[in-house]
């Protein structure tokens, strides 16, 4: 148990550091391009990616997770899965090209034709690296994976900014995406040193295909539920409205998505090894969940409380409408930060079917809410989305943990303490900002109010709510480890 604990913490540390670097690079990319491009240009690309992202759900076919989760798997099986992935990638790249005129007609925007076609190769690049990614995850080589992902993001950032400065406008966003996907796939091949062999019989991978199919269907349903509003906003409100909405959603999601990605892959790999040991699985999940929630909750609320200052500082006054949308989205992202880790538990314990059923319930709830809010524009959609997610949280929690080694009572302290501490810290931070930071620069406001909020949160969570022992134990473990490649 000790070896797995230290390996998990070591992998988590490497992944977290890498995700932090990646988040910083994406933030720099967003800031630079937001100053160079207009909301409508971001909205134009978002029109295409909302649809191509749906196709992207099929590119991996869930086979990366199937490879990681399998108790045992042969090289021939992995090679067969690789060729299946690649075939799917080629098929969807062709389909993406055929879809281009359909998008032009649907949105009434001719620029989408070539934009959609140039996004098509990304399906092939992504599919080519799926099994190489799974190999690194299965071996818990997260330091190596972090280097690959960070290098790809950096080169994509450089490509995008260079294109924008050269006057290519929204094509900079397309170029950045393609370069990132190509470099990621190349880096994964180089890092693993694995070359796929001849494919074996499909009959030998049918159990893996079934697992991957369930995961893909679950991801597909979730994607539709969580992204249909972008398609509807683009169709009925235009590129400017979608540009503001998509920028707001992306900015508030960057830290949360990176943290969930940093811990999620490591947690899934570790929990999958413990699926036959319910006591240890419960221990690992509860502690991992507590750590993630204690970071994501205060960060999300800080972003929501000080959205105007953040947008003024980073993007300038032309993005203030996005700041208002950003603030209304805060409850949605907060709920996501609380429920996303349940995916680790369900997939690691082979409950993909339950994850799919929850997605089949969430999707119509969210879609209905967004349709109700659609007549009121991006703000109406954001508000309706948040209300729906807040109402869904408790049923989702109960449903996900039912029958697993983890109980609702195990998680309630992990949820209540960070929320209480964050609300107290955030309220005091707002008061400090209102009464001492009037007419100050956005940067100074964020530094003073943010530091005060962080200090209050730290005191609350460590001393008032008694979590100091948990973090001291974690810090002791971190001091004892190194991060090998």
TrEMBL record:
Membrane topology note: Multi-pass membrane protein
KW Phosphoprotein (keyword) present: no
Entry coiled-coil feature ranges: none
Ranges that cross the membrane: 12-36, 42-68, 80-106, 112-130, 142-164, 170-195, 207-228, 248-272, 284-305, 325-347, 359-376, 382-399, 411-432, 452-471
Compartments in which it is found: Cell membrane
InterPro entries tied to this protein: Poly_Biosynth_Transport
GO cellular component term of the entry, any: plasma membrane
Keywords of this entry: Cell membrane, Membrane, Transmembrane, Transmembrane helix
Entry-linked CDD domains: MATE_tuaB_like
Family stated for the protein in its record: Belongs to the polysaccharide synthase family.
Protein name listed in UniProt: Lipopolysaccharide biosynthesis protein
Phylogenetic classification of the source organism: Bacteria, Pseudomonadati, Pseudomonadota, Alphaproteobacteria, Hyphomicrobiales
